[in-house]
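I have been asked to look over a protein record a colleague put together. Thanks in advance; the entry in question is below.
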Amino acid sequence: MKIYFALAALFIAFNLSPAQKLDLSERTLPILFDSLLAQTKDQKMQVIIERIELIEGSGLEHFPEWQVQFLQVKSELLMGIAEVDSAMTVANKAAYIAKTYHFQKLIAVNNHLIGNLFLRQKKYKEAIPYLEQAETYFRAEKKLADLSNCVSKLACALSMSSKSKEAQEVAEEALDIIEEVDNIPLKIQVLNDVSTVYAMLNDRLNAIRMLLKAHEIAKEYGFTKPLTGVSNNLAVNFFELRQFEKAKRYTQEVISICEELNLDYVKHHVLLNLSNIFLVTHSLDSAKYWLSILEAESSYQRNDLLKTEVALLHSELAFEEQQHEKAYQYLLSAKRMAEQTGVELNRLAAMAGMAKYLELKNKNTEALNLLDSVINHPLAPLFELEEPLKIQAKIYKKLKNYQSALAVQEQSEIIKDSLAALKRIGIIASLEADYQLKNKEEKIERLELENDLVQQKNLQNRRAISGLGITLLLAIGLGYYFSRHRKLKLEQSLAEVKENLLRLQINPHFIFNTLNSIQSSFLREDEEKTIHLFSRFSNLMRQVLHNSESAFVPLSEELDLIINYLELEKIRSNDKFDYKIEIEDQVNLYHAKVPSMILQIFIENSIWHGISPKQERGLIRIAVTEENGKSKITIEDDGVGRSFSILHKSKGQKSKKSLGTKLAMQRIQQLNRKFGKNLKLEVGDRLESSGTKVSMVA
């Protein structure tokens, strides 16, 4: 009988004109509500909002509990079409009714909703108390799904409010809770939220790992809508790490989904991100094109928050084209709108831009006042300060205040070094993303291969009878073959065993050295550094175990391992050295194969025997080039050189270094014999200055 009520209710609710009223009752409302929730998955949000308004006009106020629930759905839908202010008005109305009638569960749900809306408005501190109240209720009632959702949003709000340590703890709890919940879309959302926390902590690598995991789950289970937020955040993180091609790829993926699902809010911000990518890469015409697409969107004019960010981007474009007066007008407009919307970060961005304009006009005192307000603001850690500091240093030099200029310059250099570190992490994140993509492609290839094998087996079965005579002849031939080549096979097996033993000898050499670094840090009672080293080391061990399984690995994977090792050693040595990785454009990192776990030995030698004895900071340069169709990897250091190292090292240190080099040489010989390769390895001194140079052609 219930199904007939459902059909009747749907027919009445969704086919009558707005002027007509529904016959609402305690019996029909649950059916209408469930039907609306189902419709939200494949209907346009605006259509569902209109249907809710039709129900509101039919006496919904006589059923306060249901009225609150319908209003909450309406608020979420308004948020989905970028009507955030209207959504907040509806949510506040729902909150008033829920409190009047003491609907405790609905009050908690509404607090969570209002917290989300404040996050959308970038009012992070205002979001925290609402989310905390919702969290208290969900925790007491042991509603794990709601709790994980709420806690992950709270972690975002805390991180955006510069409460880093608390945010990280809350984020980790959200990950623990979601493991106990069987809800795939919610898991995707929590991973997405936690990635935001990592990003705010400048841990972009872990942010991207969270997002790649969420992206894979969304793809696997076909959840297209949650994929938009995940892919958008991937684009943002890759953009911050200066991996622009990947940023473009994920951005364009989001645009396609948004156009398919009519997700205006997400699409707006993605178009803005895409414009920003082209601006940073100095493709100004493309940046203008995507901005024009954004400004042509029908709902764009109703979104003051977005208009502020567009004005800021227009000002940067104008500065690039030397149109300083035009840039200043955009900045004035952006500052005014930021003050109206209460988004402090946008106001700071406008003020920094205005200071840039004033410096160009030689209005130095006014510019310094603005810069002081930006740099000393409580939200400064969330703001990109490199450009404001450069302008501040430039003004101090013009005013001949060299002491202040030097102090600001040093602060700017610290940020510059931090950005350089982010670029290094970006290489790792980029390699990891491509590695996961390659794994998926290999899985597809394996499935296709298995399918081909099944078809071949069926074909063989059909031909089995007719081919019996040929099979017998082949059996005789194979018997002769195995007899003839048994000796060769045994020799090959012996060579493989020797090669594996050599690889196993290298791995402990590497592992024990790293453990010694951790032990030293522990003995110095540097707890934070020890924990960080352990975290790095655990990730490194995963790579070592993976790479050690194969004689050859893609060059991309070997570089990934090397970068992680170098970062670990930089920490251990108190930043005693820096490194550069230079890769020629024509080198295909994913196609080229190199012997696993060999390059690390020579990098270790460079650090321990070349750079460590130096008084100054050292540099390790890794260059990947193409030579006669093969990959050539060159490792150079500016250390003391082999002669100095041999003269000043103890007998034990000499033997340790020579053992690693000897093992590497032996392994190259074994690989050449086993696989018929022509691998070449050369070790020598740098001719132009002190240091060592190692070259391997694979």
Remarks:
- The longest strand covers residues 618-627.
